[in-house]
């Protein structure tokens, strides 16, 4: 299908393209059934706002708002493509309402903000028990996620050549969603951890050097670390560091990304700065981290004059 080919030129992930294709096929079958024709007989020119509204009503009933919104986006892009190709005079998706999705709250590690420090210290001390322990590698995985906020796929995509700059001014080039690149600063402490890890890697595998094209993160057989291996590694680190109860449901590696953004927001990072560091296309998500810390709300509440009165009521020797 020409439309599916056009999606690939947008550099969407294969997962997203496959999901769009499934949504197009499924709703086509629903629409054809409602029109009383086979899918093969359903022509683009026959697609109307009323037909799409009815098909989406059936599609949406057993599905989540996120699934419906994804399907809506797929069909909106498809029918916009049809208009551009002269197959339709207008896009009928304007007649199909979209469900509202509740804003997703950030999910950093729970507690008083000390969980990430506990995680790093205990893993550095060798708390993680493994068949073939590799403390230097485990520590780089956790630390890099916590100081850059990279997504899982971004972490796995970093090569030795992705790290550049003079000592003390190094940056990591990251390829994010949609093939967009961004440059993330790293400071001396993480530089030293990476250097220690690479030395341990050369010794472990009896190598003299590593090419710049080599992946930064590898498994214990020197193969590129995969998504499942990364998830298992991080889960085990949480367990042996004793902080599994601080990891919110539905997060794993992503909890480290939320932890990164939340702690920066607590220390005054702006929504624009968070958007740049996290690789978001909108400033809205960055604002969610700031709202979750309630920094500005607390600052406003602190100005309440009642606090001055209460402070004055304390006796010099009072508690």
Question: What key attributes describe this structure?
Answer:
single chain; mainly alpha
Explain what this protein looks like in three dimensions.
This protein starts with a helix and ends in a 6-residue tail after the last helix. Helices cover 54% and strands 4% of the residues. It is built from 14 helices and three strands. Strands 1-2-3 form a three-stranded antiparallel beta sheet. The chain is mostly helical and 319 residues long. The protein has helices spanning 2-9, 14-35, 49-60, 65-84, 115-124, 135-148, 152-157, 188-205, 227-241, 254-266, 271-278, 284-293, 295-302, 306-313; strands at residues 163-164, 171-175, 181-185. The model has no long low-confidence stretch (mean pLDDT 87). It is globular.
